[in-house]
Specification:
mainly alpha, 7 helices, about 0% strand
């Protein structure tokens, strides 16, 4: 015969232990339920933009990589495959191969530095035709436009706000138990 919960005789200690376990479980699940959607929102913002409109760091990195690659190809046609051309191509490949935000930032930094060096080398080279010089300058301008757009992106602000919530009490300790982690900053 099945007994109803009210008919089961539990000692007072067992009842208190069950109540404490249920409170702890509800705290853990509540923390996970409130922080996980925010984490996913921040993570999506890197790829899709803060407003989900596609204007994101990820999209800007892709366009920056294309402009740098085009500048390297134009420079290579005119002045050959110099060390700076090789460094731009290598940095672009590293950006394409980067799997996490930290690696993307490292590749981004290398690519912007290599692009600066290549532009300084190629901009005034006499072997460039007038058209090549204009195209290289346009690529360089596009690169700097992307750099400014990335600097103004709201992703890092969103990630920092989220990280502040995660590191506060009690989320910090509960998060350790349920696996909530901080968002990576693009820096």
């Amino acid at each position: 015969m099945i007994k109803r919960l009210s008919e089961i005789n539990l000692s007072r200690g067992a009842g208190i232990a069950i109540m404490i376990a249920l409170i702890i479980l509800s705290l853990l699940l509540g923390c996970l339920r409130s922080l996980l959607p925010e984490y996913l929102k921040v993570k999506k913002a890197f790829n899709n933009g803060a407003y989900g409109d596609g204007f994101s760091i990820s999209a800007d990195l892709s366009k920056l990589g294309e402009s740098a690659w085009n500048m390297a190809a134009l420079a290579e046609q005119a002045i050959g495959e110099t060390d700076n051309v090789k460094k731009v191509k290598q940095a672009r490949r590293a950006l394409d191969d980067a799997k996490n935000i930290k690696d993307k930032h490292t590749a981004y930094t290398a690519l912007t530095y290599a692009s600066e060096k290549l532009y300084a080398e190629a901009a005034d080279d006499e072997r460039l035709s007038e058209t090549q010089a204009k195209l290289i300058k346009q690529c360089y301008t596009d690169i700097h436009s992307r750099i400014l757009t990335i600097k103004g992106d709201e992703y890092n602000e969103m990630a920092a706000d989220y990280n502040k919530k995660v590191s506060g009490f009690p989320a910090r300790y509960i998060g350790l138990l349920v696996g909530v982690r901080e968002a990576e900053l693009f820096e």
